Amino acid sequence: MDATPAVRLDGVSKQFADSYAVHRLDLDIESGHFYSLLGPSGCGKTTTLRMIGGFSDPTDGSVLLAGADVTALPPNRRNVNTVFQSYALFDHLDIAGNVAFGLRRKGVAKAEIRRRVGDMLELVQLGGLADRRPGTLSGGQRQRVALARALVNRPAVLLLDEPLAALDLKLRRQMQVELKQIQREVGITFVFVTHDQDEALTMSDRIAVMNDGRIEQSGTPEDVYEHPASRFVASFMGTSNLMTGTYRDGEVALDSGPALPVGARPGISDGTSVSVSVRPEKVWLSDFEPGMSVLSGVIRETVYSGPTTTYLIEVAPGVTLSVLEQNTARARMEDRWSGGETVEFGWRPEHCLVLV
Amino acid sequence: MALLRPFARTRRRGADGDRVWTWLMLPGTVWMTGFLIASLVLVAVLAVGTTDDLGNPRFGFDLSGVRALADPAYTEVLARSLGYAVLTCAVCLLIAYPVAYTIALYGGRYKHGLIAAIVVPFFANYLVRMYGWSVVLSDDGPVLRALRAVGLADGRTKILNTGVGVVAGLVYGFVVFMIIPLYAALERLDVSLIEAGRDLYGGPVRTFFFVTLPATRQGAAAGLVLVFLPAMGDFVSAQLMGGPDQIMIGNLIQDKFFQGQNWPLGSALTMLLMLVLLIGMFGYLRRTRKDEAEARR
Amino acid sequence: MTLLRLPSATAPSRPAARTRTRRGRTERRPRVLVAVTALFFALLYLPIAVVTLFSFNSKKSLTVFGGFSLRWYRAFVHDDVLVSSLGASLRISLVAMSGSVVLGAALALGLVRCRTRLGSLAGLIMLVPLITPEIVTGVASMLLFKGVGVDLSTGTVMLAEITFSISYVTVILRSRIAALNPEVEEAAMDLGATRWQAVRLVTLPALLPAVLASAVLIFALVFDDFVLAYFTTGVDPQPLSVRIYSAIRFGVQPTINAVGTLMLAGSIALIALALFIPRLFGRRGGLDILSGE
């Protein structure tokens, strides 16, 4: 792989009045990756994207594209293109005119513009709509135009600012798959801003979870999901059973009473207050293996949702864990637990994360 | 390197506050400052100026123009202008309210057409309209003839050359400025609010005073200012509809600049007019700010 | 009781006279309101109708209609002074329109996008003509021209009218610009346009209907304006409005009816056009162009 990252942020900050939207961000995005900036609204992900695109000046630090410092360059002199959240199509131009806009600015020959615009419209499946106005298109079609308009310039990096947020759920799922396919096909680095963790997990090669102007954790989707590095990441990515307590001798004494065996954690000194996190789907309700931590509790609620069933199990007063069971071919209805029953449950020690 | 950063920043182009916008703003602002602000300052300066023997204005510091304003002849005109302007505001409100109310609530799909039918002629030539109005209100014009026919007027009743005529002219000239903000306020008014008022207060009259009127107070206030401003400065209506006994401050100003050739006095009168209007504006702004503060509570 | 109420919430355009109160009694008020409104419209159009009617009068009288004739229109066409005034008015309107639309559109763009202290100062200066009565603007402009030793002429009227019209254009366009999606301009820059190119290639086309409408409106307003022209015009040729003023003041000739009718027809057509322009571009047209909201 090329050693020079496609995008590098070096200590980038953005200050508004007296608060930081982005604080000393360091970030490397490898060329050809689908990279997601994931976080709740106001976490600084869009500001970060805008600084890469050149729409917002960092108050500190530098932005490097393919190794070159572009911090002082305006958007039109950066080899990146953006798909805006509002799509920002030019209403006075037809679809072909919209897609051709960037190529015209660059002075590409007319015949080549026509060819490339045609190819790009085919790629995003808008072949027949070249002479329509944006106002006459559906949301999904507008989204494709915005994508084509950016991609046709063959940028080194494509920035996408929540491009699917305005679409309905079904269309969004479809576009997720399509967007990923297009990215693989064109091989361009995508930087994708989203607040939807499902979206980030399904599409990305790398995810950076942002909170409060900083990156909490970055890594592969598996990494970030399976090994959240902080309480924030654990709770933001999917559902987590988060319990607070105090670590001592391989056990965490929960604030509410019971002690959980978590195994020796060399990095954590005794008496540290920690959070314990277990994913609902990592909890077993039967067939325990040796070495597992096994506890018992009372089923308080059973939530059936088709492929899965969620049990809420009360371990101690005020401490309820949620446990996810697959309704696989082998599971039968009669086997399901019902409310009020006392059950045993457990997990492998490596699935129990202790977060400081 | 880190030490150099603060200096490096000054070279940046400023994507957030691009200088292009300042450059775009500049020509218009310079033009306005050069022509308008400078000329208003000139009026203020000349108000304390003098004239030479030939009547040409000279700069200086002489308060005779300002002092002359205290002359009863002028204070009477100022009082009359204020009276006419206030009366015009009141009449405009009385006319505009039912008209705007009817169109906004009962206009249905003709709403926009009806408002356009009011607005369009008002942007047509003011003088020609006033001239036509003076013909309509003349002694054998259609209005007086109709009034005589139903016995509301006799042969001696006049509208032209009276104060009524001047106010009628001002109302005709500026009533649109009352209708537009009132209509906008009534349009925004939720019909269900009136329905709720009917349930709470019963009668339509009580509903009107307790629900509709308070909800449109800001529109009315805006309308009053928009009518008061031009009415106070008008000199055409007093000339066409009134006579020598009905002159307003605008006529005085016109006279000092065109016939009397007393420019310092004319400038002083202009400043006086501005002062009255500024007081009015200030009162309006204070009022709306108070309303907004109350609305927030 | 409640059964007697009409479902007005679902039918906002209920017939006026048949609205009922909850007491079931036919309400009188709308009928009175409708009558007042009708009377208002009658009085609003009566003067215009009178001027128009008597412009076609075959007699010289301003009160007795003697039959249809185009005599006063012919008189107008052969009146060199009035025709030269018409020419002057057209020139003034055209120049003031071009000047104020260019300056005002640029100012509006700057005001919306520039959030510096200079921007807010410019915003305040822009408002001055709107809260200053025309007579004050007129007096001030005249003093300025005389003060710097410029002889009053058609040119000085043009300058004064531009000054006054800039605010109008700015107010109309400012709300339109504020309603534009700022991401569209960013998209243009993202695709390789400089800031200027983005404004020229994307923002201005998006504003075109509003710019055209405001241009037409300014043309009509300047053409009809009397007070400012009165204070800043030279002797010959005087703008048509000023001519009409003198004619009305010093003994009316029926020719003025013909000129007035033509002016009314012209400006009503222009205002209607200004309202209609946005629709030509497939957008919602409307009165907001007049109020700037």
Describe what is shown at a glance.
The complex is a heterotrimer of chains A (356), B (297) and C (293). Chain A has 356 residues and is α+β, with helices and mostly antiparallel strands.
What does this structure look like?
The complex is a heterotrimer of chains A (356), B (297) and C (293). Chain A has helices at 45-53, 95-106, 110-123, 139-151, 169-186, 197-203, 221-226, 231-236; strands spanning 7-16, 19-29, 34-38, 60-65, 68-69, 80-83, 157-161, 189-194, 206-211, 214-219, 241-248, 251-254, 259-261, 273-278, 293-305, 308-316, 319-326, 342-347, 352-355. Chain A is an alpha+beta fold and 356 residues long. Chain A has 2 domains: 7-231, P-loop containing nucleotide triphosphate hydrolases (Rossmann fold, 3-Layer(aba) Sandwich); 239-355, RNA polymerase II/Efflux pump adaptor protein, barrel-sandwich hybrid domain (OB fold (Dihydrolipoamide Acetyltransferase, E2P)). In chain A, strands 6-7-8-3-9-10 form a 6-stranded mixed beta sheet, sandwiched between helices. A 5-stranded antiparallel beta sheet of chain A has the order 13-12-11-14-19. In chain A, helix 3 crosses helix 4. By secondary structure, chain B is mainly alpha-helical. Chain B contains 15 helices and 2 strands. Chain B has a two-stranded antiparallel ribbon. By secondary structure, chain C is an all-alpha fold. Chain C folds into 2 domains: 2-55, no CATH class; 73-291, MetI-like fold (Orthogonal Bundle). In chain C, helix 2 packs across helix 11, helix 3 runs antiparallel to helix 4 (117-131) and helix 6 (154-179) packs across helix 8. Chains A and B meet through loops of A and loops of B.
